[in-house]
Amino acid sequence: FAVHPDVQGRGIGAKLYDAFFASGRHERTLLTVLTEADARQFYERRGWRGVGDGAWSEGRTYLLLALEPGH
């Protein structure tokens, strides 16, 4: 999910995040975020850690983040 830049900073992303994970987590959760996105800091504040990176065919780069159990 993503929050449009015009409405970021209002807690919408945090509410979406909390609602998504309220149902529980798996043993390990992975996600990708665009390297240039502000989302990286959002997830790192919540315990996500970088485990890899890569590039799509369009030349945009991404980070692979992981969340371990207990976070």
Shape: flat
Low-confidence stretches: none
Order of helices and strands: HEHEE
User: What structural class do you assign from the helix and strand content?
Assistant: alpha+beta
Percentage of residues in DSSP E strands: 25-35%
Query: Treating each run of at least 4 consecutive H or I residues as one helix, how many helices?
Result: 2
Helix content: 10-25%
What does this structure look like?
Helix content is 23%, strand content 28%. The protein is α+β, with helices and mostly antiparallel strands. A three-stranded antiparallel β-sheet has the order 1-3-2. The protein has helices at residues 12-21, 39-44, and strands at 29-34, 49-55, 61-67.
Key terms for this structure?
71 residues, alpha+beta, 2 helices, flat
Topology, please?
Layout: H1 12-21, E1 29-34, H2 39-44, E2 49-55, E3 61-67
Antiparallel strand pairs: 1-3, 2-3
